[in-house]
Amino acid sequence: MRHLIDPLDFTVSETERLLGLAQQIMDRPGDFARRCEGRILATLFFEPSTRTRLSFESAMLRLGGQVLGFSSAQSSSASKGESVADTIRMISGYADIAAMRHFKEGAPLVASRYAKIPVINAGDGGHQHPTQTLTDLFMIRRSRGKAGGLTIGLCGDLKFGRTVHSLIKSLVRYPNMRFVLISPEELRAPGYILKEVLAPSGHPYTEVLRMEEVMPQLDVLYMTRVQRERFFNEEDYVRLKDSYILTPEKLRAAKQDLAILHPLPRVNEIHKAVDEDPRALYFEQARGGVFVRMALILALLGLEPDILREEN
């Protein structure tokens, strides 16, 4: 039995096969419409979510399966003090696979140790978000033809942004990558990302304050919002929330084939006028997440046995 807790739980080859399956599902959805009949997905969301929870539910329903679960800790027995371990033990008797989002870092990992079913980390605090990473890689592949040999700018909240941390951990495994980290001093990437992920990889990276100075270099621009829920006080959030706003004017110096991505939700870090730019791929990115999660569910349930196989 396999789980997806960390982006590195799958090898590069397994990841590529999974994303290839997602492309097949996108191209021929009817071929997969009954693959999960009789199977149940539990969505255990201890933290609010729109895209991730609904895309998991859409994925399972499109595969012919069913869904049960909760959308906040207050609507679960966690509000009564039930532990994650006890919750997943119980859910293992109700469902065939579980997707868990939790406000505490490491909670899905704990769940995986007690589960009798595959567990998918749907985001744990400011730590990891591996299914968003798979979605990001899927969109990078579709827009650029490959995941390696690119210069990617990651902009905004690089300190608390779990999507950024997960994406960097995955992309360093691809050849000839260059990373440009764009953020205010207060929201710089954590030390462990720089020292334990980027530096050992040998890939070049730079940290800059201004988006405009690096725009012409970028093949991919990954925007993120400044997350109010990660701040301890409102004053710091208000001071930093408008640090970077992408506008059509700032894109004039960008490459014509730049891919603009965003894990969403967007607040105001991408001006709505940018939505009309053909390089703005964030809504298509969100749509692709459904096919990625369909592929992941099939792989973890063993319904596509060749996807997650150990490498020789």
Fold and architecture overview:
The chain is an alpha/beta fold and about 300 residues long. Helices cover about 35% and strands about 15% of the residues. It has helices spanning about 10-25, 50-60, 85-90, 105-115, 130-145, 160-170, 190-200, 235-240, 280-300, and strands at about 40-45, 65-70, 95-100, 120-125, 150-155, 180, 205-210, 220-225, 260. The strands form 2 sheets. It has a 5-stranded parallel sheet, covered by helices on one side. It has a 4-stranded parallel sheet with strand order 2-1-3-4, sandwiched between helices. The longest helix has 19 residues, at about 280-300. The protein is globular and about 55 Å long. About 45% of the residues are buried.
Largest β-sheet summary: 5 strands, parallel
How many DSSP-defined strands? 9
How are strands sequenced across the largest beta sheet?
Answer: 7-6-5-8-9
Uncertain parts: none
User: What integer value in Å does the Rg equal?
Assistant: 19 Å
The SSE order reads HEHEHEHEHEHEHEEHEH
**Overall geometry:** globular
Average per-residue pLDDT, rounded, comes to 90
Question: What structural class should be given to the helix and strand makeup?
Answer: alpha/beta
Strand fraction equals 5-15%
Number of helices: 9
N/C terminus separation: 19 Å
Helicity level: 25-40%
Give the arrangement of secondary structure elements:
Layout lengths: L11 H16 L12 E6 L5 H12 L3 E5 L13 H8 L5 E6 L4 H8 L4 E6 L5 H15 L6 E5 L6 H10 L6 E5 L8 H11 L3 E4 L11 E4 L10 H7 L18 E3 L20 H19 L12
Parallel strand pairs: 1-2, 1-3, 3-4, 5-6, 5-8, 6-7, 8-9
Helix pairs in contact: 1-9, 2-9, 3-4, 5-6, 5-9
